[in-house]
Every structure is written in C-alpha cells, then in structure tokens.
Amino acid sequence: MESKIEVLSSVKVENSNDLYKIVDALNRTLKRENLMFGLALDKNEKDKAIFTIYRT
Q1: Record's InterPro entries (predicted)?
Q2: How many C-beta atoms lie closer than 10 Å to residue 30's C-beta?
C-alpha cells in the first residue's frame, strides 16, 4: 500500500537555535493525528527556515 504525503502549509520564518525543539515536540505529540512537521534551512536566505506541515 502506497503512503501519500500531503503538504498542508508551508511558511518561511526567522531561523533560531531552538526552532527544532518545537518541531520535535509537535512531531512527537501529533503523529497519532497523521500530522508531520518539517524544518529546513532556506537555500537562498541562511537566516531563514522553512516550516512545513504535512498530513500522512
């Protein structure tokens, strides 16, 4: 069975050292709701990060 991942929302935010802690807490808390959260550095602006919400 194929699992499809849907992007629900994506936003560019100021990067911070503790931002990954929020993403980790959201992933641990809401995985039972079929939600997943991602964080990636923006390739063009190193002081920005892309926060994305997915549904699995």
Answers
A1: UCP036698 (IPR012190)
A2: 13
CA-based Rg of the chain, rounded to a whole angstrom?
A: 12
At residue 2, does pLDDT exceed 90?
Answer: no
As beta bridge partners, residue 10 has 52
Q: What stretches of 1-56 show up as alpha helix (H) in DSSP?
A: 19-30
- Report the alpha-carbon distance of residue 52 to residue 54 in Å, rounded: 7
Give the start-to-end residue ranges of the domains of the chain: 6-55
> Tokens 């997915």 belong to which residue?
54
pLDDT in tens, 10-44: 999 999 999 999 999 999 999 999 999 999 999 99
